[in-house]
Amino acid sequence: MHHKVTKVFSKHPPRYSAKNLIKRILAIGIIITIIMPVTSSAKGTCQGRFVNPISDICWSCLMPISIGGFTIGKGGRPKKRDTKNPKSPLCMCTKGNIPTPGVSIGFWEPTRLVDITRTPFCMTNLGGLDLGGDRRKVSSYSRGYGKFHSHKSFYHVHYYIYPLIYWLELITDFVCLEKSTFDVAYVSELDVTWNDEKLQTLLHPESLLFGNPIAQAACIVDCASATVNMPRDSLFWCSGCWGNIYPFSGANADHVGGVQNSSLLTTRIIAKMHRLGLAKETSTNSSKINGKLCTKSMAMKIKKSQYKIQMVNPKSTSSGIGCWPLGLSDMIYSSFKEYPMDGQDFGYLIWRKINCCAF
Fold first, then answer.
1. Using CA atoms, how far apart are residues 155 and 344, in angstroms rounded to an integer?
2. In the predicted model, is pLDDT for residue 140 greater than 60?
3. pTM of the prediction?
4. Core-most of 39, 65, 153, 198, by most CB within 10 Å?
């Protein structure tokens, strides 16, 4: 039986002549040529990557760490930038109806993550995960010249709860940390006001006060202050050198570049969370007994000085400038951060200043 089977196969050996091999190679090449453009086009609608907690995070941005009026570390480049801290290292809070003494501590904590994307339901910081069936790009760039000159754009925003230190369990049982888990807190595609500036104005009528030349001229001061040191909290409608925080929508009438625009929209979503009562004031220079060091107070208005941001998509700035305050001129950090195809959707890590009484 063995010999018969051998004979059968020996009579009909596979024929792979040079001509047949050439035909097969050409056929495979044609198939690849047809498939590749389709794959690239589909991939180009949603771009992103997961944030690497080791290499993509600027861990030096935790500093400066303060104990009362004494600070440790510089906390970023090009110079030390920090809010005012309580002068006294001692504090006291009531815990279980018992006055408990503690130590006044201040540090910067990575707490939130933001997507700035051209494609609806494209989760940039989740590896470019596309949750929507419609892959058409919604963002637009409108340019005009002469009398009707304009340059505007539109992006979607996703806002994540991202308490990185507590989530990774780097420090446990520390009363000052935000004890929560990763979550998607806001998706602009589900917010009907994000696409409608008029509806935003009805919900936030104070924006009518800032749409005039005088209010806009004041933003020059905020731009200079944010570039030299820290932004001015009193100018809460300004985002420094990036533009106007109002309206809380994805449209920007003064689009200069992707980095500038995405930085502005990151500030807008932080301000929107404050305006909705979903963000709190966490920094203070008061050491009053049972004061702001003991509890986080509600803040309906953004306190810009307690935030700084770091780019994590499409490139991480952990090895460069690290993190920077809201409103800093993008000329300092925007070089080579925006490029065709893979570099037009953005992700930012939000660092928030924490002052608390550790006991």
1. 11
2. no
3. 0.83
4. 153
